[in-house]
Automatic annotation (TrEMBL):
Name of this protein: Carbamoyl-phosphate synthase large subunit
One GO molecular-function entry: carbamoyl-phosphate synthase (glutamine-hydrolyzing) activity
Pfam families named among the record's database cross-references: ATP-grasp_3 (PF02655), PylC-like_N (PF21360)
PANTHER family registered for this protein in UniProt: ATP-GRASP DOMAIN-CONTAINING PROTEIN, D-ALANINE--D-ALANINE LIGASE
Lineage of the species this protein comes from: Bacteria, Bacillati, Bacillota, Bacilli, Bacillales
ATP-grasp domain: residues covered: 124-296
Keywords: ATP-binding, Ligase, Nucleotide-binding
PROSITE patterns: ATP_GRASP (PS50975)
Species this chain originates from: Paenibacillus aceris
EC number(s) given by UniProt: 6.3.5.5
Length: 329
């Protein structure tokens, strides 16, 4: 049973407008009272113009960040915080108790899971330990002794949005990019079809649904064209991974490749709403409703695969025009 009134605060809301609007739709459909608020470093965050109220907050790594969030939560009677970027997941997971004592639910997985997801070497180690296929990462020794074959892939250990992810075709490129990319990690280059998979998990680790989305095109690391696929091999492989994760909560987004031989190999874990989630929601996987249900105390007793297959999302830019912002000259 849904609580009749819910105040939600999306942090680092940026341009995540379609997600906000999909939550708002659920409010209207279920006749829920409450407000949808946003917090961001910038007053120019596009979401600021569509939320009921927008708060300017310090940077996530600022020592006052948590204090300021708590102040907003108490003043505005926030029920749920939904963070939208990776960098604040660890900070919030470390401060879960403070928020819970203030009566605020965090849609955030355990600190352990956020640590694993945030550092690519820990992600690799987790996949190794749980016997999950993943591209091989080469140690410095293996590289020095040339125990590899081209092409390779180099990426920053703690990167996001595909920044610095580079395909390496020869020795010369390897030498250059290994120094050029900060905290570089060298791994096997995998080909196949790339999928992003959205999973909904309640506070007790029960899975509600798994939605594989085939990535047709990406822009700045975020999917710009995608299509939903009911691929049972991927769905069951993803369920295995999620069940072995420590303390997953809310939307968990996984990235994997389906190789030509059918093997599913995992490359990334993002324990938050990914950029392409609007496609899964539009297809009928009602993530906003499920979030509100679990925050009203419900647990998921059965899985739901009633979402539509082959729904394609083609994204384009829209703009907000306003004269209400005072810019500092």
């Amino acid at each position: 049973m849904l609580n009749g009134k819910m105040n939600i605060l999306f942090t680092s809301s940026g341009r995540r407008l379609s997600l906000l609007q999909q939550f708002r739709k659920v409010f209207v459909q279920h006749n829920l009272k409450g407000r949808i608020m946003t917090a961001d470093l910038k007053k120019t965050a596009p979401t600021a113009f569509f939320s009921d109220q927008h708060f300017i907050v310090p940077r996530v790594n600022d020592p006052n960040y948590i204090t300021e969030l708590l102040r907003i939560c108490q003043k505005e009677e926030i029920d749920i915080i939904i963070p939208l970027i990776d960098t604040e997941l660890i900070v919030l997971s470390e401060n879960r108790r403070v928020f819970e004592e203030a009566g605020v639910k965090l849609l955030v997985s355990s600190k352990e899971l956020n640590d694993i997801a945030c550092d690519k070497t820990q992600t690799y180690q987790f996949f190794q330990d749980s016997n999950t296929p993943t591209p091989k990462v080469f140690s410095d020794d293996e590289i020095n002794n040339k125990h590899y074959q081209f092409p390779l892939l180099i990426k920053p250990l703690d990167g996001s949005s595909s920044v610095g992810v580079t395909k390496i075709n020869n020795e010369k490129e390897l030498l250059f990019f290994k120094d050029y990319i900060p905290n570089a990690m060298v791994q096997e280059y995998v080909t196949g079809t790339e999928y992003t998979v959205d999973v909904m998990v309640d506070f007790n680790g029960n899975i509600r649904t798994v939605v594989p989305r085939l990535r047709l095109e990406t822009r700045a690391g975020e999917v710009s064209k995608g299509v939903t696929r009911k691929d049972n091999d991927i769905i069951s492989a993803v369920k295995q991974v999620v069940k072995s994760l420590p303390g997953p909560v809310g939307c968990i987004t996984l990235q994997c490749f389906k190789k030509e031989n059918g093997e599913i190999t995992f490359i990334e874990i993002n324990p938050r709403f990914g950029g392409g989630i609007p496609l899964s929601i539009e297809a009928g996987a009602n993530f906003p409703l499920w979030v509100l249900q679990m925050c009203s105390g419900e647990t998921f007793t059965e899985e739901d695969y009633n979402w539509r297959e082959n729904l394609t999302m083609l994204r384009y830019d829209e703009a907000v025009f306003t004269e209400s912002i005072q810019h500092d000259h």
